[in-house]
Each structure stands twice: as structure tokens, then as C-alpha cells.
């Protein structure tokens, strides 16, 4: 019988959205042949939460879902104390979701002293600094189940993962959600006469799409192997980024008609140059679809 890696899934201040996203992984039976949960808040596990808190159960990987605050408790014990106890025995720690990574929605809600494990939005914090070398971040609201599962298999196989500055695997976060978007031709020619749910038109210039400056794999690894927000006609909300959630998600904030947030790596000067060139083009093939009834 092959040895399974043992996982502890801790739920901190969470809506359990990442848990439910994970449950949509289409090959769960195969996954559970290679991994076992000593505790999971939803999946049947060998131990109860009270066992996890009162004892020290051997495990290999600690998964943390939800924002972290010392005041928040599980089984009458601070979540910080539980993390500290198990961090000493596991091989790796994975923050599951934007709340566990950056603080996310619960940080914005005003819950006291709340952050991610290593980051308060973009700022690195001192808490758990000694665990930086053990940690991998999987941001997203919710996470894509395949990103999490592929990361866990990389750990199991002792594969060296190249990480970005927020400890996210570059294999999934080195490019932007804009990469692979089926609306890129509309983006290039600044065709943004878009209505939600329709297949034509870019949503960046007027409708708040954050795909050009959001790191993620949504248009590379499709959700449910079928779709993504931008393909379905909804602007990217930037849910993998430290600043999530932003206000006014469905409008593009501008300064003198220039989007405040430009695509990653594009300077204001370069943007103005490209915009000036683009205005010289009129692509009837693209615009006809938008205006035909």
C-alpha cells in the first residue's frame, strides 16, 4: 500500500468558499488515493477538531483557509496557537485563498488585527516570519481547485516550485488573467462597448475588468474545465491580488481619461503612445458585432 501524505486543513476566519471550490475538483477520488486529511471542516476525517487542538497529530502539510487573527478561536484555542503548534512538524504550509494570503474580505470587514499569514495586503508582517521558507501561497477568492491540487502534488513529489514575491507558484501566477482572454483583440483596438453576459467587447476600458494587472491562471486553466469570468462576460475582479476587494468593481477609475491601473509592465507613456496609434484604426469586423441587433 502506497504511503499517503497527511494533510491538516485549518479553517480560520472564513466563508468556506475555498473548501467548496476544492470539492469541485473533478478527480477527487484519485486525489484521495494519494493524500488523506487528518482533519477537514467538511470532508470526513479520522480526527475531530478537538483532537487536533488537544493533541499533536502527525501530518505533512498544513493548509490554512481564512484570514488570521489571534482573537479568533477554534475549539476555544487561538487559531494562531494552533498554527504555531503544527508549523513545527509539517513539511510545508499552504495558505488557501486570498484571505489566508493577504487578509482579503475579512480584513476589510474590520475584524480586529486581521491579516493573511505573512501579508497584510502587500505589506509583509512580522508574525510567522520564521515560516517564510515553509510557506506557499495560493491566492484567489476562491482558489482554483486544480491550482491547489497541482501544488500539493508538487510538494508530494519534492518538486522545487519557483515562487513570486508573495510566495505564489510562478507556474500559475507569473502571467495575468488577461493572458488567454478571448477578448484580447477587442482590448488591442479599444473596443469596449460591452454589456455583461455578451461575447463581444473588452471590459477593461469602461467596465472595471482587472485582468491586465491581475496575476492568475483563470484563462489558462478554465473553471470546471469549461469557462472563466471574462469568457462568460463578467469583468475580472482581481481576486488573487493583495488589494482585493476593491470598491466600484464594475467601473474603470480614470484620471484624465486614462485608466488608473494600467496593464502590468506598461508605462503611462507607452500606454498613451499605443492608444494614439489605436485611434487611427477602425475595425469594422469587430465593431459590427457590437452594434448589430
From TrEMBL:
Identify the residues that the record assigns to the NADH:ubiquinone oxidoreductase-like 20kDa subunit domain, covering every copy.
15-154
Record-listed [4Fe-4S] cluster 1 binding positions? 15, 99, 141
- Provide the residue positions that the database annotates as binding [4Fe-4S] cluster 2: 178, 181, 202, 209
Name its cellular compartments. Cell envelope
GO MF term set? 3 iron, 4 sulfur cluster binding; 4 iron, 4 sulfur cluster binding; electron transfer activity; ferredoxin hydrogenase activity; metal ion binding
Quick one: where is this thing mainly located?
other
Q: Which cofactor does it need?
A: [4Fe-4S] cluster
GO CC entries: [Ni-Fe] hydrogenase complex; cell envelope; ferredoxin hydrogenase complex; membrane
Q: Where is the Cytochrome-c3 hydrogenase C-terminal domain?
A: 173-247
* Pfam families membership: NiFe_hyd_SSU_C, Oxidored_q6
Keywords attached to this Swiss-Prot or TrEMBL record, sorted alphabetically, are: 3Fe-4S, 4Fe-4S, Iron, Iron-sulfur, Metal-binding, Oxidoreductase, Signal
One of its GO biological process terms is: anaerobic respiration
Q: Where does [3Fe-4S] cluster bind?
A: 218, 236, 239
Q: Which family does it belong to?
A: Belongs to the [NiFe]/[NiFeSe] hydrogenase small subunit family.
Q: How does it assemble?
A: Heterodimer of a large and a small subunit.
Q: What is this protein called?
A: Hydrogenase
UniProt source species? Sulfurimonas hongkongensis
Amino acid at each position: 500500500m502506497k504511503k499517503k501524505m497527511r494533510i491538516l486543513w485549518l479553517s480560520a476566519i472564513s466563508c468556506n468558499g475555498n473548501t467548496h471550490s476544492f470539492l469541485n475538483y473533478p478527480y477527487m477520488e484519485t486525489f484521495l488515493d494519494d493524500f488523506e486529511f487528518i482533519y477537514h471542516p467538511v470532508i470526513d476525517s479520522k480526527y475531530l477538531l478537538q483532537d487536533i487542538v488537544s493533541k499533536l497529530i502527525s501530518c505533512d502539510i498544513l493548509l490554512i483557509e481564512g484570514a488570521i487573527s489571534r482573537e479568533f478561536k477554534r475549539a476555544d484555542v487561538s487559531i494562531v496557537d494552533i498554527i504555531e503548534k503544527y508549523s513545527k512538524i509539517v513539511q510545508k504550509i499552504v495558505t488557501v485563498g486570498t484571505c489566508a494570503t493577504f487578509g482579503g474580505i475579512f480584513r476589510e470587514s474590520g475584524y480586529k488585527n486581521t491579516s493573511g499569514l505573512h501579508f497584510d495586503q502587500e505589506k509583509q508582517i512580522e508574525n510567522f516570519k520564521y515560516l517564510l521558507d515553509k510557506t506557499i501561497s495560493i491566492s484567489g477568492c476562491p482558489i482554483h481547485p486544480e491550482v491547489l491540487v497541482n501544488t500539493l502534488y508538487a510538494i508530494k513529489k519534492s518538486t522545487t516550485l519557483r515562487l513570486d514575491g508573495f510566495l505564489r507558484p510562478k507556474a500559475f501566477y507569473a502571467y495575468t488573467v488577461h493572458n488567454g482572454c478571448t477578448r484580447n483583440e477587442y482590448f488591442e483596438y479599444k473596443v469596449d462597448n460591452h454589456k455583461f453576459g455578451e461575447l463581444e467587447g473588452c471590459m477593461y476600458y469602461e467596465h472595471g475588468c482587472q485582468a491586465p494587472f491581475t496575476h492568475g491562471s483563470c484563462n489558462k486553466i478554465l473553471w470546471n474545465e469549461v469557462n472563466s469570468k471574462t469568457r462568460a462576460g463578467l469583468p475580472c475582479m482581481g481576486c488573487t491580488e493583495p488589494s482585493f476587494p476593491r470598491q466600484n468593481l464594475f467601473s474603470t477609475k480614470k484620471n484624465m481619461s486614462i485608466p488608473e491601473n494600467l496593464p502590468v509592465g506598461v508605462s503611462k507613456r507607452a500606454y498613451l503612445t499605443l492608444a494614439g496609434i489605436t485611434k487611427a484604426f477602425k475595425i469594422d469586423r469587430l465593431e459590427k458585432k457590437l452594434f448589430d441587433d
